[in-house]
Write a structure and sequence with these properties.
It is an enzyme of class 2 (transferase). With 464 residues, the chain is α/β, with parallel strands linked by helices. 31% of the residues lie in helices and 20% in strands. α11 runs parallel beside α12.
Length: 464
Amino acid sequence: MSDRTYPNPPDLRPDLAPQARVSQHAPARAGQPTIGMVSLGCPKALVDSERILTRLRAEGYAISPDYAGADAVVVNTCGFLDSARAESLDAIGEALSENGRVIVTGCLGAEPEFITGTHPRVMAVTGPHQYEQVLDAVHRAVPPSPDPFIDLLPASGVSLTPRHYSYLKISEGCNHKCKFCIIPDMRGRLVSRPAHAILREAEKLVTAGVKELLVISQDTSAYGVDIKHASDRGHRAHITDLARDLGSLGAWVRLHYVYPYPHVRELIPLMADGLVLPYLDIPFQHAHPDTLKRMARPAHAERTLDRIAEWRGICPDITLRSTFIVGYPGETEEEFQTLLDWLDEAQLDRVGCFQYENVKGARSNDLPDHVPDELKAERWDRFMEKAQAISAAKLAAKVGQRLDVIVDDIDEDGIATCRTKADAPEIDGNLFIDEGTETLSVGDIVTVQVDEASEYDLWGQISA
């Protein structure tokens, strides 16, 4: 495998969306105002950016994929970790330097004084999913100049992902009170979208050529709880019903951010039947009960292994992805070893890991016995070494199998970067096809014979 070197790095941030790209933009007409967009953070923020740009384009604005030529720039920020906050401030500073006319929105916008204290020149600051306030700020900075004969709202809106997959946000906010997380403070409590509205959006996406729907929220399992799983126009607001309805559209359906509540079991037969992808993204975060208690997590580690075994019994092909935190305040060597032992037993397919960071406003900041940075790094290395070994063994077992893959990219050398049903964009591995790709196009779903594997990625040939 010496000439096949396209490894997926093991330290990808599991909180980040794929790189935003404006896939449906055209040159501005003479006199048309142009807005640029910088979108940071998670897929939920990327969906917010898409909605803002769709509204702006319908009002007559041209969309720029960068600062160049834009009359103003909207920076959609992230506030998940202190490192993400610093990254957002850097992006705002770069936009001010390169363009000068900057409107800030997103999670960090919930703290306007924090932003203006560093960058007093920003034109406006709005909080997360405050679409109307963002539009008002853009109107003040750059008045719209629509042409009613040209500027029509496109059926599929503006997409910041490739045309063949799209994120589908089903709810906003979260009712949990995890001590390390400030997302509920910034985005509020759970607010579920009506099921019929989600289905209508999904149908439009599939009609426009989307082959894969990535279902996202802060807590996908809790979808509909706030509206008591109400039925409206023939669709019930419950994750099981929603997954079944989405699965009827003919696209791949991938579920993210699913807490391991008992009712998640109802989703597994849908996966076994092929209605939704056999893939669950579950944020376990840790395995030791004392650590989970200090985190104020809503799940219990002692039950998750039994549930995992039950899920695999129903759907043997299920892929389980999760994220974990090492070095949480008070984490002892015994607690960390429990996590490693749990990982050995759980044999998760895809794993991401954070080193704990303080975040302004998080209750975990005040916990005693913070772990030194060097010990956090050492534990992260040990954790990732074990996770990598598990991943390598899991992928090696796929050599010789025939798998369906979706084509994400074909480079100038004809190498196709693909994903199996077990891989979400950017955060998981890839399958590469390095010959015979002349007839392939981005977005195709084809069957591949796997012939090689590494710790994170696969290689294969198109199967006849």
